[in-house]
Amino acid sequence: MSIVYRGRSKMMQIRMICAATAVVLVLLSPWVPMLASTAAASLDARRYDSIFCLGDSFTDTGNNPAVFAWYSLVDPVTQPPYGNTFFGRPTGRNCDGRLIIDFIAQGLGLPNVPPYLGPPFGSPSSSPAQNGSFRQGASLAVGGATALDVEFFHSRNLLPATSKFPLNTSLSVQLEWFESHLKPTLCRTTQ
């Protein structure tokens, strides 16, 4: 005995749904390549001129040595083997090669993001950090930085596990660096 729903058997309904789905797919198939090429063209049309990144060692392109220098400390990332694999010399990065921000910049057709606090260790003299131009971006990230200000940790007698010393290079400090130093040189309006 067959179950009938609105005059049609369940098997007939399933066949009709499958046929309708097949018709829709066949009708859409010529459009799929066009839709894909339109999406790719819109991605190509999107153009980025700069990258500004905040964070810790995952995006620190060389600020850490400058911070260590403030405390007259030698940062190990200024010595081999850091940087040897890709750059052939120490770069002030907390890795031996490139960071994810380098791959993002490459994908967008931009140069590697320079560190905000000064020329990267061992960088050529044409570094944007040396001539003060950050039109193509800057990394404000510092290895060991935290999301919370150092006062939070001091008020609780805590030192962040990632911090090598009690320095405030937190997210709010990095945003302040951008607001007070970079934004005025990059933006023409006061807003």
In short:
The protein folds into 2 domains: 4-45; 51-186, no CATH class. The chain is 39% helix and 5% strand.
Order of helices and strands: EEHHEHHHEHH
For the secondary structure, the number of strands is 4
- Work out the radius of gyration: 27 Å
Strand order of the largest sheet: 1-2
Tell me the major beta sheet: 2 strands, antiparallel
Distance between the termini: 75 Å
Q: Which structural class best describes the helix and strand composition?
A: mainly alpha
Helix content: 25-40%
Mean pLDDT: 75
Uncertain spans: 122-128
Number of helices: 7
InterPro entries: GDSL, SGNH_hydro_sf
Organism: Dichanthelium oligosanthes
Keywords: Glycoprotein
Protein name: GDSL esterase/lipase
Supply the key terms.
191 residues; mainly alpha; 2 domains; two-stranded antiparallel sheet; two-stranded parallel ribbon; 7 helices; 4 strands; elongated
How are the SSEs ordered, and which strands pair?
Layout: E1 4-5, E2 8-9, H1 10-28, H2 31-45, E3 51-53, H3 64-70, H4 100-107, H5 128-131, E4 137-139, H6 150-155, H7 171-186
Parallel strand pairs: 3-4
Antiparallel strand pairs: 1-2
Describe the structure.
- GO terms for molecular function: hydrolase activity, acting on ester bonds.
- It comes from Dichanthelium oligosanthes.
- Belongs to the 'GDSL' lipolytic enzyme family.
- The protein is mainly alpha-helical and 191 residues long.
- The protein has two domains: 4-45; 51-186, no CATH class.
- It contains seven helices and four strands, in the order ββααβαααβαα.
- It has helices spanning 10-28, 31-45, 64-70, 100-107, 128-131, 150-155, 171-186, and strands at residues 4-5, 8-9, 51-53, 137-139.
- The strands form two sheets. A two-stranded antiparallel ribbon has the order 1-2. It has a two-stranded parallel sheet with strand order 3-4.
- Strand 1 and strand 2 form a beta hairpin.
- The chain is elongated and about 85 Å long.
- It starts with a strand and ends in a 5-residue tail after the last helix.
